[in-house]
Amino acid sequence: MGCQKEIAKLIVKQKADYILALKGHHSGLQGELEAWWHKCQREGFTADNFDEHTTIDSGHGRIETRRCQQVLVSKSWLNSKYQWVGLKSIIKVTSDVHEKTTGKETTETRWYISSLDLNAEQALSSVRNHWQVESMHWVLEMTFREDGSRFRKGRGPLVFNVMRK
Fold first, then answer.
1. Whose C-alpha in 9, 109, 130, 147 is 20 to 30 A from the C-alpha of 121?
2. Range list of H helices, 18-145
3. Mean of the per-residue pLDDT values for the chain?
4. Distance (Å) of CA 73 to CA 52, 84, 117, 130, 143
């Protein structure tokens, strides 16, 4: 499932909400979003539409600092130009990782759009919970090779999924 307008429409139509990651194939949108974000930073975010939350985790020989910044976007240029159904917030997550043994430091920034009216702490928790699910699916794929299964129709996929586990 990717960051697609049609997927967002289907989600909202089912009376659900979304948090969708912007990835490389959305480089135009992401570039405009970054420019808009920097403009808002220069002009100053207002307290009623901006929130920020930082966490620091240590383990596995590294220290990771995650900073989540979230902006509510009612009737922004993003809504009118790109027509994302139900868009309410833009989420920016910056992860700074310090490897204790090598001293190497890396920074990664990820962007998300959401139909939820979340604060930054809730947004970061939601994004991190998604990656826990992805990690579990990766372990299942490596263990059971589910993606390579030939069972695709009827009850076969469900039956063999249950039997494997």
1. 9
2. 27-43, 77-82, 120-144
3. 80
4. 15, 11, 10, 23, 42
